[in-house]
Specification:
The protein is an alpha/beta fold and 379 residues long. It contains eight helices and 15 strands. A hairpin with a 2-residue loop joins strand 4 and strand 5. The structure holds zinc ion (ZN).
Length: 379
């Protein structure tokens, strides 16, 4: 994967490192060929010489990188943490900030780098990436997470003349409708400041939602590249499942959803158009559950809720028993799993799920998971 990594990283200055890396790996590395050619060649060998040892394939290796704070003032340092999950015992994590190698860790699953302050980036962004290289693996083992970027503000959280600030956005993203990431705009509700909270406290809550909820929630955590998050600097209300500042449609027309975080505990909801929702800034079940509605188009799976609906594509609940049963037959599952969990609404879920509750430990369930996969595939 060297060529692939190098093209992503823009690493023309690191050829020495990569040559070492190639030498260390040895084996099937063929400088000058593309990864596709390598893969095709190896697959050909695999068919002909299936008994031979062709090196390890570990598609499940992962590397992820987080940053803290999610938006930094120009006088603040930023801590980047890369975490690898690999079966390899011979690997390295490299961390890059603004396309420069800043940290290398060998055979340690967690790699930390504290950078900044970044005063020369005020009003623009800082980018970051983690790369996992496994030296005992020939194919499908090297992984990257990034580049993502976030905004650097002045010491009062002003971001040039813009009212929206990248908190974690894939570099090179074109926002929808023309782009293919889903974009969440975080709003601070008007109950933070009266309760002694600051914009910085709100940003801490945003960070928790991005990294402690989304990046920890099944399925979403593997699609974080498609989850772009911005923070809006204008205050929102909590009525009607969130009431955003009137300038929002003019200033951020390309967002997909609005998440209005509030300080006090309220009954939260998602609007019927599935475009905005409210959630406590602190950890509760609401942020993940209402993201299920607004971001993924999932309906409630608990009894006694309001506003059930059947999505057009890969619905998680049905208005008819026959609809639910037909889906199970198509997917070669037992149609008898369909149950009327609420008068007039059918589904196959059982126990607690994210869409009946919302804890990180709750499963999505089969049908909700299919909807989420459909969502990511349709981006
Ligand atoms: Zn709900």
């Amino acid at each position: 994967m060297n060529n692939f990594l190098d093209s992503i990283l823009g690493l023309t200055g690191y050829s020495g490192l990569n040559n070492n890396y190639k030498n260390k790996r040895g084996g099937l590395d063929m400088p000058g060929t593309t990864n596709i050619m390598r893969f095709a060649t190896i697959m050909l060998f695999a068919f002909v010489l299936s008994a031979c040892d062709l090196g390890t394939i570990r598609g499940s290796d992962t590397v992820t990188i987080t940053h803290d704070p999610v938006i930094a003032k120009s006088n603040e340092t930023v801590t980047f943490t890369a975490t690898a999950a690999t079966e390899s015992t011979d690997y390295r994590i490299r961390m890059f900030v603004n396309q420069s190698l800043v940290q290398t860790c060998y055979n340690m699953p967690t790699c930390i780098y504290t950078g900044g302050p970044y005063p020369t980036h005020e009003g623009t962004t800082v980018s970051f990436l983690a790369a996992l290289d496994t030296f005992d693996c020939d194919l499908l083992c090297d992984k990257v997470d990034g580049y993502h970027h976030f905004g650097i503000t002045d010491t009062n959280y002003n971001y040039g003349s813009l009212t929206y600030i990248p908190a974690r956005v894939s570099v090179g993203t074109t926002e929808r409708p023309s782009g293919n990431d889903t974009t969440l705009l975080f709003h601070m509700a008007n109950d933070y400041v009266p309760n002694g909270q600051t914009f910085g406290d709100f940003l801490d809550d945003v960070q928790d939602k991005i990294y402690d909820v989304y990046a920890a929630a099944g399925i979403i955590q593997y699609n974080m590249d498609d989850m772009d998050s911005y923070v809006y600097t204008r205050v929102a209300g909590t009525g009607s499942c969130g009431t955003v500042a009137w300038q929002t449609n003019t200033e951020v027309p390309w967002r997909d959803n609005d998440a209005i975080l509030h300080y006090l505990t309220l009954n939260d909801c998602t609007d019927s158009g599935l475009t905005h929702f409210t959630a406590e800034g602190s950890y509760t079940v609401d942020f993940l559950h209402h993201s299920g509605h607004a971001v993924f188009g999932l309906a409630d799976e608990g009894a006694g809720a309001t506003g059930y609906f059947q999505s057009t594509h890969e619905p998680n609940i049905w208005t008819t028993e026959v609809g639910c049963r037909w889906e199970q037959i198509i997917k070669q599952r037992n149609p008898d799993n369909c149950a009327e969990f609420e008068p007039g609404w059918w589904g196959i879920h059982s126990g607690t799920t994210v869409m009946s509750n919302g804890e990180l430990t709750d499963p999505w369930g089969v049908e909700a998971a299919e909807r989420i996969y459909w969502f990511y595939n349709s981006l």
